[in-house]
């Protein structure tokens, strides 16, 4: 191994350092781009724009982002999010305390946009159903389901208490968009064993990019089985890139716990078209890589 080359782990620490110190030197950016797959525009499926940010206030770390859903009537959702590269040590202290990651605070991840787009495209799938989103981050997909599908209930959950606070604020901001759908936020850790009030109560679980960390696979699989209705048709819809062997190992956990899954690569014409464009090269996502960036659909059920 070339001793002058930087390891992936060292470069990931550089990403953290850059976020904390807001470094912008060209050498640091060049090196971290080699292992960061973060997109500038993502899949660009749901138009969005920053509508408010206050750089001179105490809330300079936040911005309000307007998402315009590409459906009849063009309903809008307003999400308060952290601005890019705006983490602090407290974020990581909380992550260590709760044994969770802080990726939900970093940005709106591309797989979440794909999940939200897919769900709004299939309102009949969710109509009248009880739905929970796991590892939701700012909650875009859960909010889209609540606003566009006539689900009976949507629970938007995350294990990070900071993230859950953002979800609560975003639910309150958009409450007029939900019609008769009940929407609430919840702090949910996948290693919780006492979830009696939620056991076997959901028709649909949705999640995006929740399979990267292999140490959470077993607890996540157990949580899926516990939350899904056992005696009625129910399903979990996961959108996750392969990310090396992480997705494969997660699916093994799904099988080992007695659940069944179907893996689909081409599940939506518009998403697939955008993927093919990115594979050919696009300045909006210069480091796009199919195995690390393109989310596959994993449909998980209790029964074949």
Describe the overall structure.
It holds the Pfam family Methyltransf_16. Keywords: Cytoplasm, Methyltransferase, Nucleus, Transferase. The protein has twelve helices and ten strands. With 304 residues, the protein is of the alpha/beta class. The protein has one domain: 3-Layer(aba) Sandwich (Rossmann fold). The longest helix has 14 residues. It is globular, with a radius of gyration of 19 Å.
- The general outline is globular
Strand order of the largest sheet: 6-5-4-7-8-10-9
First-residue to last-residue Cα separation:
47 Å
Question: What is the percentage of strand-forming residues?
Answer: 15-25%
The biggest beta sheet reads: 7 strands, mixed
The figure for the number of domains is 1
Alpha-beta classification? alpha/beta
Write the CATH architecture name.
Answer: 3-Layer(aba) Sandwich
The radius of gyration over CA amounts to 19 Å
CATH superfamily: Vaccinia Virus protein VP39
Outline the fold blueprint:
Layout: H1 8-21, H2 26-33, E1 48-53, E2 62-68, E3 76-82, H3 89-98, H4 103-106, H5 110-120, H6 123-126, E4 130-134, H7 140-148, E5 153-158, H8 161-173, E6 182-187, E7 204-208, H9 217-227, E8 235-240, H10 246-256, E9 260-264, H11 269-280, H12 290-293, E10 296-301
Parallel strand pairs: 4-5, 4-7, 5-6, 7-8
Antiparallel strand pairs: 1-2, 2-3, 8-10, 9-10
Helix pairs in contact: 5-7, 9-10
Descriptive key words:
single chain, Rossmann fold, seven-stranded mixed beta sheet, 12 helices, EC 2.1.1.60, Methyltransf_16, methyltransferase, nucleus
């Amino acid at each position: 191994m070339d001793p002058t080359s930087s390891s992936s782990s060292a470069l990931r620490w550089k990403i953290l350092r850059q976020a904390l110190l807001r470094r912008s030197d060209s050498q640091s950016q060049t090196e971290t781009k080699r292992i960061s797959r973060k997109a500038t525009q993502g899949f660009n499926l749901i138009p969005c724009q920053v509508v408010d940010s206050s750089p001179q206030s105490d809330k300079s770390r936040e911005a309000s982002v307007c998402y315009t859903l590409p459906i009849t009537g063009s309903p809008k959702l307003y999400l308060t999010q952290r601005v890019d590269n705006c983490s602090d040590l407290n974020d990581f202290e909380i992550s260590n305390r709760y044994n969770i990651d802080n990726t939900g605070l970093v940005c709106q991840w591309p797989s979440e946009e794909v999940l939200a787009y897919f769900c709004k495209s299939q309102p009949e799938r969710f109509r009248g159903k009880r739905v929970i989103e796991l590892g939701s981050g700012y909650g875009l997909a859960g909010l889209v389901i609540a606003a566009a599908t006539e689900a009976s209930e949507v629970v938007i959950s995350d294990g990070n208490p900071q993230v859950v606070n953002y979800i609560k604020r975003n639910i309150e901001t958009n409450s007029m968009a939900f019609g008769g759908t009940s929407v609430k936020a919840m702090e949910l850790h996948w290693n919780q064993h006492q979830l009696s009030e939620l056991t076997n109560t959901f028709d649909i679980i949705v999640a995006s990019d929740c399979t990267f960390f292999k140490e959470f696979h077993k607890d996540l699989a157990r949580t899926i089985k516990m939350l899904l209705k056992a005696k009625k048709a129910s399903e979990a819809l996961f959108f996750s890139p392969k990310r090396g062997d992480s997705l494969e190992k997660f699916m093994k956990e799904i099988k080992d716990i007695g659940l069944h899954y179907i893996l689909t690569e081409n599940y939506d014409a518009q998403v697939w078209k955008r993927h093919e464009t990115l594979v050919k090269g696009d300045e909006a996502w210069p480091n796009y890589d199919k195995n690390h960036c393109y989310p596959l659909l994993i449909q998980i059920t209790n029964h074949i």
